[in-house]
Amino acid sequence: IKSIDVNQYRDKVIHEVEDVRYEVDKNMDQVKTNIRDHPFESVAIAAGAGLMLGMAIALMGRRAVKRSMRT
Question: How confident is the model at residue 71 (pLDDT cuts 50, 70, 90)?
Answer without folding.
Answer: low
